[in-house]
Amino acid sequence: MNGEAVEEGKWSGVFPAATTQFGSDDSLDIESTLAHLDVMLKAGVHGFVMMGTVGENCSLELEEKRELLQAVVAHIGGAVPVLAGVSEYTTSQACRTAGMASDAGVDGLMVLPAMVYKTDRRETIAHFQAVAGATDRPIMIYNNPVSYGVDIQPETFEAFVDEPRFTCIKESSEDPRRITSLRNLYGDRFQLFAGVDDLVLESFVLGIDGWVSGLVNAFPDENRLIWDLVQAGRWEEAQAVYRWYTPLLKLDTLPKLVQYIKLAVAECGYGSERTRAPRLAIEGAEREEVLAIIRKGIETRPDPSAFGMQ
Length: 310
Description:
Elements: E1 13-16, H1 30-43, E2 48-50, H2 62-76, E3 82-86, H3 91-103, E4 108-111, H4 121-132, E5 139-143, H5 145-148, E6 166-171, H6 177-186, E7 191-194, H7 200-206, E8 210-213, H8 220-231, H9 235-249, H10 257-267, H11 284-299
């Protein structure tokens, strides 16, 4: 996987939360989706998360999810790990999706709490444990209370320590202190991934293993550049790239992140900005404001070769 053997469920590096591309008739465009993955793979990403929030999970039918995952797994061919998002309204639906994704050959799952209903601690634990029982694949637990209303507190992960399928936590609470709390409580029991793009350098300082990113869909070379600089301990240079990148990364934290990221993808020539309703293309002053951020980022983007990284 990118030339290195990877132990099952021991993920690290830059993992795009990949977009799902659609045709002009709103149909699933697998060919364009795969072409976009190739762009990011060439840039050196370390894995993919399909059907996350940016991948419009809840806009896909179950059979579309199956078709997409089978195509991606076959196309990637084991070059890097492929994870499937599991984001459903009920626990039984999540279990069916987890089983389907496992059968499709994914390397792991990124599991969210049940959608819409805000589970309490006992219900949240039961949901994740049930999904773990429906698959033989390693699981990344996705904690995003800002977007989904369920906050998995650091102490709650004690309930998942003895289940070997739980290997990783994607921490998106917008509180980097959680990273230290998780390390203090569990050491290296879980891999820790950052999930908030404009907090990633702060998270690297605190000791994460990887980064599930949205803007990497449009700027894969720059994401990989930050990762490489951090791994080399070149913090001042990483900080300079991060300062350039931050206005773009903030687009990942807003309610219309999917539209914004897909617009950036289109501006960079990697795909279409089409989303499925109820998401609509942004327009008017909002569109001009976002395009100004994207175009300035493109015009002023750093050259990885100037850092000796390519």
